[in-house]
Specification:
Helices cover 91% and strands 0% of the residues. It has 183 residues and is mainly alpha-helical. The chain is rod-shaped and about 130 Å long.
Amino acid sequence: MWNVIGTGLVAGLIASMTNILIAHLSNRTQRETTKMLNLEKTNEVTLEWNNETRDLISKFVKACFQTHQVYNATDGLVGRFSEAIKSNSNDRVFDNITEDAKAAIKKSNQTSSELYALQAQIRMHLYDDHDYLVTDINNQIEKVIENLESNRSLPAKEIDDLVDLSREYFSIQWERIKKENVR
């Protein structure tokens, strides 16, 4: 009888230890799986965020070119107005120039608003002031706008510098994501 009880106790003890071991291994596997899923989701969100930021920067550069085109059109109106005065043109010519000037002012307001809105969105996306590239990109955007507005010419060098800084920033971000995936 004691043999039966002893055998039952040993079998119960082995079954309990097996269950504990299986539960421990299962729990560890579940934690690792959860950690991997969280890392994958974080990387996915980071990539999406970087793509949105990249898109905003490209829209900003496009808006710079559009603003420059508006400035050129406005400068052309000034030339047309001067010619109309010199040639003693009739009222109809001045009315046409006035209508074109109204359209140019409207377009100028739109492009300027878009430029500043994009700047604000980029600053919201690139918010880490401890990252020197973020600070450099935001400062470069300021330079582009200042030169565009003060000189009324396309600040090609500043735009190129902005693109180079952005490429470096996104390259570093990509390397960080790849490094996180290796862990």
